[in-house]
Amino acid sequence: MSESSPSASSSSDESDSQIETVANGVKHVIINGDNKPNSRQEETEKSEDEEQFDLGMKLGFKNLYSGKEDKKGRFQWQDTIPEDIGDPVENSETAKWALLVRNVKVYNDPTKVLSIHSIVVQSPLLKKLLAGVLKNYPGVTVGLNRLEFSGKFEPLIHRWAELQAAISKLGSTTEEQRTTKQHAELLQGILVKEFKGLIDTSQDMMSKGVMNFDLLWTLYQPGATIFSRQDGQETAMTLNTTRYGLDSKGVPCFWITGKYVDWDGTKFGTQKLNICIFVFTGTRAIGSLKAYPLDYHHDAKALRERLITRGAKAEGLAGSNYRAYHGVAWRMGQFGTKDKYNVKGRIVIDTYGWNRFNPGSAVYIMPLTQKEAITEDSSSEMDEHDEDGEEVDEDEENEEEDDYDEDDGGMPIDGRFADEDDESTQPAPLTTDQRLICTPVLRGYSLKNKSWLNFFVNCVEDIEWQKDAFDRLVLPKNQKELILGFTESQRKNRDTFDDVIEGKGRGMIILLCGPPGVGKTLTSEAVAEEMKVPLYLMSAGDLGFDPRLVETKLQDILEMCSRWNAVLLLDEADVFLEQRSLHELERNKLVSIFLRVLEYYEGTMFLTTNRVETFDPAFQSRIHISLDYQELSIDSRKTVWDNFLNNSTQEHTITAPQLSELARMNMNGRQIKNILKIARLLASRKEEKLAYEHVLTTLDVTQHLHNENQASKRTQGSLYG
């Protein structure tokens, strides 16, 4: 049986020119004396090589290079080195030079063909000199291996006078001093040649108190104290950065960014302030600019003292403070405008409460110890050494920065505001420099306007307390002592009273019942004045009649009053106290909400009403004290007349017998006050002292009002009882 085959025959025919060898377990075919793998062998080797590595597992890296760009700056990656690439020009040879000066070709200046693009300071002696000249200049770290200046060379231009002075003081005793002076004069010569015209022009304008738009940047040195007026208030800030740009409407302008000290309710920190100076032609007086260095103010010393004094006042008002206010206050409107309010009355300064009840306008601050970011002109080739060459502990450098993340999305850190009672958040005293740049604005609540507003520090005043308000309250002595005693005790010991459920049942609710004008409202006002706490006057109209909104508003009011230890007065509370019926479903909802929310109130609440016949049983169980006010007796009316007469600066001639005669008139306290008010106006009109005749004339004119009043159920009887 034959064992030959075509393939075997072919192999035999080509034996003279083809020799197969095996080496290291790999077959090689030598053709015509050349060692060449056949195609099948090459594919086998490639296949075996690829199978040895999974994706991304081959040790090493593959370089790719950008190809030629098209007109739009686009390019394709390629694996071959571009032909136009040469050796780097900055190498070990260039590192020997004290300075590296990079130049670029100039196209738009007929006076020169080259301009300095950047300067790299490599001399350690020159760096040591610049460490003193540029000390505390934001964004400059002199201890870098490669200290680079570029752009407008702001650090060197701003500190030009300091640089000149430092060079002039250099000695020449030692070799190091002589070398330092040579390097410094070399840098000085380069800068003078390049920037002499700019420096001379800028200094000339500054000496004359003017500046043009193109050289505004030379006036503003980072770290300087900048003065401006914000909302009419004298304001100082520390300058961070400046730049030329556009405003929101595309108008060219010069942007100034600074920081000032503010209070977020628990601690002091800094906020940013951006000010825009629009483009102008020619020169302009520095003092007329929207913001300028404080030293250029015509009375800088007095201004500095005013700002420091105001800053100390703002520091003293940190926290929750009950004060008086007389001036303009404002808040942001719906369309970004500032809605202004003329406020004259009592306010509560409370930034923590502002954040709590206005989270959309909450105050967020940077830590006072937050270090400034390095500007784009500074080199990124940084080693871990400070200006003196000593190693810097990175953890130590950042330990006081509170891990602040600028990209917080307008949310408080960790999703909640700091606890104002946390001892770790208690603020340290501000320094004089920090008081200088302290905010002119405080946040708080106007008790008269019932609005959260921004208040100016200068308009905040101490309260002039009516010290005898409680003593002049016409009530039985034991009743007055009972009211004041319960109110003060509840304020001091409310945490000791609790229900089965924590936070429930800590409040004190006092019901004052009686006819109009007998002192119900005055009682709560006098108690608040005696205790020197805020009085929050609330009515059913303040809450509205939409059950969905009533609960939110009521909860906010009760929480605010509890925070401030305020006395809450719900005047004319009949709409809530009246017994519920099956036919008033909407009112039933309001009463139900009121009863539920009231359970968790932790302060003191006064309720006043003219009737008690139809009390809702659920309300009766929630009232701690109920006081019934009777019609004023003759003696009580005499005391009321006497109090109102002596409470005015206007003199009167009313005698004791005449006062007794007036006391016989069946009138309540509010009517007595109104009669005297009109009588005083009548006396002033005639330029006379208030007399008994003026009161009688007023009574005659208003007789019909008294007649209608006498016809009512509670005040039947004659005018002269």
UniProtKB/TrEMBL annotation:
The lineage of its organism: Eukaryota, Fungi, Dikarya, Ascomycota, Pezizomycotina. Residues 1-12 have a biased composition (Low complexity). PANTHER family: AAA+ ATPASE DOMAIN-CONTAINING PROTEIN, FAMILY ATPASE, PUTATIVE-RELATED. Signal peptide: none annotated. Residues 1-52, 375-432 are annotated as: Disordered. It comes from Didymella exigua CBS 183.55. Keywords: Hydrolase. InterPro entries: AAA+_ATPase, ATPase_AAA_core, DUF7025, P-loop_NTPase. GO terms for molecular function: ATP binding; ATP hydrolysis activity. This is P-loop containing nucleoside triphosphate hydrolase protein. The keyword Cytoplasm does not apply. Residues 506-631 form the AAA+ ATPase domain. Residues 378-409 have a biased composition (Acidic residues). It comes from the Eukaryota.
